[in-house]
């Protein structure tokens, strides 16, 4: 029988990759979409799936709309990807971030508990919950120490997912995903900011690139690989929490080198450090241990950072040339 899934945050990077993955598997896909004044479906068009989705409108801050969507879809699976996901913005919008990324999770879990308890639930948790890291390599047992309103809100979302699993026996799993990128990544995140700028500089449309802390280290993977891990979590008999990462960490500086190198430029000639891009509290380094995901889910990342950055550079070179 055809399975069905409801994806919140379907218009985001991961939503677009996940929608394509599920449609390719034969799912009926419902997309929970917030009303915006301008087009937000461009990623779904890029993936060629815009017309294949059943859209349900609402907002994670609005419990009534969340409840209505769950009742209308009564799906086999819900993937909660909706969030104010930009860490830097969370200091300027701490309350919205708390409501959408934190309480919004309860809106969904409560709707599932009351109206659709058979539904399996995936929560988009994050390595930002590790923040000021308490172990050199972070796994499912590493204590959390969030460093931003975003990290704090996500930690609430994570624990309420665990709590509803334990309290009400829901099939609710949490993916603690480390940074993952793609040509569909938002332009404000550092990898896309760099690949877009390198393409513009190469094509004479920009002169320099202002960045913040380029000594920060991240464990970067490819979004297309990571949505497979989300799906695998909901195919298990037992719900659980899983770290999804590559197990390799790299500085922003080295990522710049790879991107500029790909178009024959030296990043040192163009990157300027601007204090405006430093954060009130920084997560200096993240490095995940995906051993449990590999052992239980049979998941492994397929794309290394070099390949990922080259893929993003190629896409940005083409897009900038067309502008
Ligand atoms: P993204 O591109 O920023 O997408 C976020 C999505 O959430 C968009 O569809 C956005 O809609 C939607 N959204 C925001 N506020 C909403 C609201 N109030 N009501 C309903 N929808 C709302 O994020 P992403 O990179 O795909 O990440 C997906 C999820 O994984 C997020 O929860 C993020 O926090 C988490 N995560 C991401 C990473 C990563 O490295 N990418 C790592 C760990 C965890 P609009 O398009 O209309 O704005
Ligand atoms: O690309 P970023 O903005 O991503 P960040 O903060 O790691 O968050 C992303 O990954 C999380 C998973 O760990 C997700 F939960 C979250 O939703 C999001 O997807 O910044 C990466 C690093 C930071 O250390 C930042 O300080 O790059 C550093 N950086 C240096 N200069 C910069 C810049 N980041 C941005 N965005 N812009 C800069 O100019």
TrEMBL record:
UniProt KW keywords: Lyase, NADP
CDD domains in UniProt: GDP_MD_SDR_e
Cofactors required: NADP(+)
InterPro entries: GDP_Man_deHydtase, NAD(P)-bd_dom, NAD(P)-bd_dom_sf
Enzyme kind, highest EC tier: lyase
UniProt-listed Enzyme Commission number(s): 4.2.1.47
Any Pfam family matching the protein: GDP_Man_Dehyd
Domain of life: Bacteria
Residue ranges occupied by any NAD(P)-binding domain in the UniProt entry: 6-312
Reactions accelerated catalytically: GDP-alpha-D-mannose = GDP-4-dehydro-alpha-D-rhamnose + H2O
NCBIfam families assigned to the protein according to its UniProt record, in alphabetical order: gmd
HAMAP family registered for this protein in UniProt: GDP_Man_dehydratase
Family the UniProt entry places it in: Belongs to the NAD(P)-dependent epimerase/dehydratase family. GDP-mannose 4,6-dehydratase subfamily.
Job of this protein: Catalyzes the conversion of GDP-D-mannose to GDP-4-dehydro-6-deoxy-D-mannose.
Identification of the protein by name: GDP-mannose 4,6-dehydratase
Species lineage: Bacteria, Pseudomonadati, Pseudomonadota, Gammaproteobacteria, Pseudomonadales
Gene: gmd
């Amino acid at each position: 029988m055809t399975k069905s899934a409801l994806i919140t945050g379907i218009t985001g990077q991961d939503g677009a990759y996940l929608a394509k993955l599920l449609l390719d598997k034969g799912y009926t896909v419902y997309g929970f979409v917030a009303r915006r004044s301008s087009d937000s479906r461009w990623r779904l068009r890029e993936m060629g799936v815009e017309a294949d989705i059943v859209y349900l409108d609402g907002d994670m801050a609005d419990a009534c709309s969340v409840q209505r969507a769950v009742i209308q879809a009564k799906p086999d699976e819900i993937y909660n990807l909706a969030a104010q996901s930009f860490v830097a913005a969370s200091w300027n919008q701490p309350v919205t971030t708390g409501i959408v990324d934190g309480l919004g999770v309860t809106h969904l879990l409560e709707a599932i508990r009351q109206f659709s308890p058979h539904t399996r639930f995936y929560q988009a948790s994050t390595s930002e919950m590790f923040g000021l890291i308490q172990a050199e390599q972070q796994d499912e047992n590493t204590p959390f120490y969030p460093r931003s309103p975003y990290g704090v809100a996500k930690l609430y979302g994570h624990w309420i997912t665990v709590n509803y699993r334990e309290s009400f026996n829901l099939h609710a799993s949490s993916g603690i995903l480390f940074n993952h990128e793609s040509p569909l990544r938002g332009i404000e995140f550092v990898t896309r900011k760099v690949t877009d700028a390198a393409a513009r500089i190469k094509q004479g449309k920009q002169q320099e690139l202002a960045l913040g802390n380029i000594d920060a280290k991240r464990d970067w993977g490819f979004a297309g690989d990571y949505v497979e891990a989300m799906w695998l979590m909901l195919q298990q008999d037992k719900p659980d929490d899983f770290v999804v990462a590559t197990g390799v960490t790299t500085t922003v500086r080295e990522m710049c080198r790879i991107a500029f190198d790909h178009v024959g430029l030296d990043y040192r000639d163009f990157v300027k450090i601007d204090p405006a891009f430093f954060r009130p509290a920084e997560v200096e380094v993240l490095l995940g241990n995906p051993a449990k995901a590999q052992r239980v889910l049979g998941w492994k990342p397929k794309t290394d950072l070099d390949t990922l950055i080259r893929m993003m550079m190629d896409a940005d070179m083409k897009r900038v040339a067309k502008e």
